[in-house]
Design a protein that fits this description.
eight-stranded antiparallel sheet, alpha/beta, 34 strands, globular, 25% helix, single chain
């Protein structure tokens, strides 16, 4: 029974495909891939007797529900009984092999629905068509366009009481669908919308495409460490191409929240702690997803989330309270959203949190006045999952009816999945809201349905032939591997890396040594089982099998009987130890906040056992957040931060370990030396009693009595296999007025023995102002590749706009005064110079 098996099962609503991948290691291992519903399945019990397999599994997407499998295998076929959530048990027959894709079964079926030579409408034509359609729609029709349903009866978080998606779509009570992720399911529901719903208005199909679709790229926190905007843009464009081939038209991403607290699980989805870099990455992501035109079927609507300050959740606890000043809101959390909107993002999603005591979902000041008024956003505002209902839980509305009014008053256009907007009809009758408010929302929704072309060609995104061709395409895997290489950050190296000889005996020890759990959260790839493991990557480097030892040592959070002893023995036999530790994918992401951001106890004990062997040891980390690594900094010879790198993770890691790629990543979140420092970030204020070199031994300053204020690894930090030397900064002038610029020049030299890439970083400090300013702020960077011994002059231009901030007069402007400019390899390691902005 070893190998891949599959079957198709027809239900009244859909066609289900299931794959079973059965492997034999120390014991049997079963992986299950279910289509078209993309929820991951964890096998909790597995027994094999002869040719019979029995298993049980669970999924975090369907809590309190169990999947059951009883299968009997022959040479080329199998049969048995399967029970999945919300369905009666059913009998199946299947065959060996991956079987036909759902795309195969759709190619001939979709052919009669194809349209050709459909003309793209201009803005005037779209406006006139929207107004004509609006005039024909009833209030019920309009509420339907503002409502979203799931593609199945599954729910996230609290239980949902709702009709089936088929019924909601047929009755025109849903204008968009969440999580229909195959062309087959999109076709089934779109066909109902076009043929049965009032006015035959096609559906939008929404999904969270966060770091790839079928080809998985590094998680966003990882790819931000590349500081490579073009590669990030390319990753998003590839994700859009793969997703739209399956019918997805509306992305619930990118997440552009600035994040300073590594306890918060969703730091994995963002670009880290800096608003300047976060703004550039937000722009790159929007451009990647939306391309040059939303009418291009390879592009999808980008949705900036979560507006706003979701990343400031107190104590790093998801969905928690946020309490920040308006200055912090505008100087820290708003810039990436502004950049994304200026780049043309078609949608914005509200945050779960409150601002000034008002839940964002019902916060008219934030959503209407700031987002739509000040920033000029005219796209679709969509609620996050259940957030309108949660206005009641926050205590800002007495019931879902009042919550619906407050959300509509705040100009939220689409309610994601829950049904509070069903109250809008009654609210209009009572004169509490107006039909014109509905018209404004529906006008925005219909405009985008025309923009992407589905009003004239409803099935244009159902492209099974493109789905087959583009998913997991070799060129996409190449791009994933390249970005994964660039995302790796070398945190420590005492000369152990790169491993230059392949004749040395290497022990790969740890739960991530041969794990495929390298994709991270927020991905539902059907190709997860083809993820390249670290072990596979090392084998591909040509290390002889006789020189490789593999020991798991422990599970991610649990000890293994005899695991420490076997790991210690392998370490003693080896010349080099690669210690592969980290977090599993469930330990970061949404609803995955952690109080303790050290490695789990079982892994710490494994590390301590391995270190006792006294062999050169490199720590390879798989994780979705900054971790406390103080012990490892003192006991490892090298530390390689690899994050969750995606489909080609093992290849990319091995490329770095063996010197085929010289690491160039730079941290976009500071790593605390101790959890008690959290949140720790580089662009903080100095306080009235700042710590300096001269007073750090004294007591009455802003410091800890049991440790330093400084992070273990600061923002912008990352090593290379070569070294770089920076000259002093030369400024073109020491004073400037508002109409002038200053050029800051520095020469950087590769002082090592091999070619390397460096990210040269420019920071500015405003020494005094109408409000206090950070000790430094990133204002520019340049990536430069230098051969050994090569030098290059780097120039930055500083203009008045680089000095502006939200000031005490509640406006953005630069204030005259003294400034410092810093240039260096990280926020900590810099040269400095001074200049003055004249009145």
């Amino acid at each position: 029974m070893i190998g891949t098996w599959s079957f198709l099962h027809q239900t009244p609503q859909s066609t289900i495909k299931m794959q079973f991948i059965i492997e034999k290691k120390e014991t049997y291992v079963l992986s299950v891939v279910l289509e078209p519903f993309p929820f991951p399945i964890e096998i909790t019990a597995l027994t094999v007797e002869g040719n019979m397999l029995q298993a049980k599994g669970v999924s975090s997407f369907v809590p309190n529900e169990t999947l059951e499998f009883e299968l009997t295998f022959n040479d080329e076929e199998f049969q048995g009984r399967i029970k999945i959530p919300f369905q009666e048990a059913f009998f199946v027959k299947g065959v060996k092999g991956p079987g036909p894709s759902l795309a195969d079964t759709l190619i001939s079926e979709i052919a009669p629905y194809r349209k050709h030579d459909v003309k793209q409408r201009d803005d005037t034509e779209i406006y006139l068509s929207v107004e004509a359609l609006l005039s024909k729609m009833s209030i019920t029709d309009k509420i339907g366009q503002m409502s979203q349903c799931m593609s199945t009866n599954l729910s996230l978080g609290s239980e949902l009481a709702s009709d089936t998606p088929e019924k909601l779509v047929a009755e025109g009570r849903a204008g968009s669908v969440l999580s229909a992720v195959t062309g087959r399911r999109v076709f089934e529901l779109q066909k109902i919308a076009v043929e049965q719903s009032p006015h035959s208005i096609p559906l939008l199909f929404n999904f969270d495409v966060i770091h790839g679709f079928q080809t998985v790229f590094p998680v966003p926190l990882a790819w931000s460490c590349s500081w490579d905007l073009e590669s990030i843009r390319e990753a998003c464009a590839i994700a859009a191409k793969e997703a739209t081939a399956s019918g997805i038209t509306y992305n619930h991403g990118p997440m552009v929240d600035v994040t300073r607290d590594p306890r918060w699980g969703r730091v994995v989805e963002g670009a880290g702690e800096d608003p300047y870099l976060g703004s550039l990455i937000a722009k790159a992501q929007v451009e990647g997803y939306q391309g040059n035109s939303l009418h291009d079927p390879d592009t999808l609507i980008a949705c900036l989330k979560h507006f706003i300050a979701y990343g400031a959740a107190e104590a790093g606890r998801d969905y928690n309270t946020v309490d920040i000043s308006e200055g912090t809101l505008r100087n820290v959390y708003l810039p990436p959203f502004k950049a994304g909107i200026e780049s043309g993002a078609g949608s914005v999603m509200n945050a779960f949190n409150t601002y000034q005591g008002v839940p964002v979902a019902g916060n008219r000041y934030l959503l209407n006045d700031v987002l739509r008024g000040e920033l000029g956003f005219d796209g679709i505002l969509i609620s996050d999952y259940g957030s309108i209902d949660e206005i009641v839980a926050h205590g800002y509305a007495r019931d879902s009816k009042e919550a619906a009014k407050k959300a509509l008053d705040a100009t939220l256009d689409i309610e994601m999945v829950t049904r509070s907007y069903d109250h809008l009809h009654e609210l209009i009758e009572q004169g509490l809201v107006t039909e014109e408010q509905l018209d404004q929302a529906v006008r925005r929704i219909l405009t985008f349905k025309y923009k992407i072309g589905i009003m004239d060609d409803p099935f244009r995104y159902v492209r099974p032939e493109i789905e087959k061709e583009s998913h997991f395409h070799p060129s996409h895997l190449t791009a994933s591997r390249s970005l994964a290489q660039k995302s790796i950050v070398l945190l420590k190296n005492n000369g152990l890396l790169p491993i230059t000889s392949k004749e040395r005996k290497i022990a790969v020890i740890g739960p991530f040594g041969d794990s495929k759990d390298l994709l991270g959260p927020w991905q539902w790839s059907r190709y997860a089982n083809e993820t390249i493991t670290l072990w596979q990557g090392i084998e591909e480097q040509g290390v002889p099998a006789v020189d490789l030892l593999l020991e798991e040592g422990c599970k991610v959070e649990e000890a293994i009987v005899g695991g420490l002893e076997r790991a210690a023995s392998a370490a003693e036999q080896a010349d080099i130890v690669i210690l592969a530790l980290g977090e599993n994918s469930e330990m970061s992401g949404e609803a995955a906040s952690r109080m303790d951001i050290t490695l789990p106890k079982a892994q710490q004990e494994l590390a301590e056992a391995v270190v006792k062997a006294g062999k050169p040891t490199v720590l390879v980390l798989t994780n979705g957040r900054p971790l406390v690594l103080d012990w490892f900094e003192h006991h490892m010879d090298a530390i390689v931060e690899t994050w969750f790198l995606g489909s080609q993770a093992g290849h990319a890691i091995a490329d770095v370990l063996f010197g085929n790629y010289n690491p160039s990543g730079k941290l976009t979140m500071s790593f605390p030396a101790h959890a008690g420092q959290v949140p720790v970030y580089y662009n903080h204020f100095s306080t009235g009693r700042p710590v300096t070199e001269s007073n750090k031994h004294l007591k009455f300053f802003s410091k800890y009595i049991d440790g330093s204020n400084d992070p273990l690894y600061p923002f912008g930090y990352g090593l290379s296999y070569t070294t770089f030397e920076y000259s002093a900064i030369w400024l073109s002038q020491s004073q400037m007025n508002a109409s002038e610029t200053i050029t800051a020049n520095v020469t950087i030299t590769n002082t090592g023995m091999i070619q390397g890439e460096e990210t040269v970083q420019l920071y500015i400090q405003d020494l005094h102002g109408s409000v206090v300013r950070p000790v430094k702020e990133l204002k520019g960077f340049q990536k430069v590749i230098l051969a050994a011994g090569e030098a290059q002059e780097i120039r930055f231009t500083i203009a008045e706009a680089d000095l502006a901030f939200w000031d005490s007069d509640r406006k953005y402007e630069a204030e005259p005064g003294e400034f410092k400019v810093y240039i260096g390899s990280s926020s900590r390691d810099v040269k400095e110079a001074s200049f003055e902005l004249l009145p």
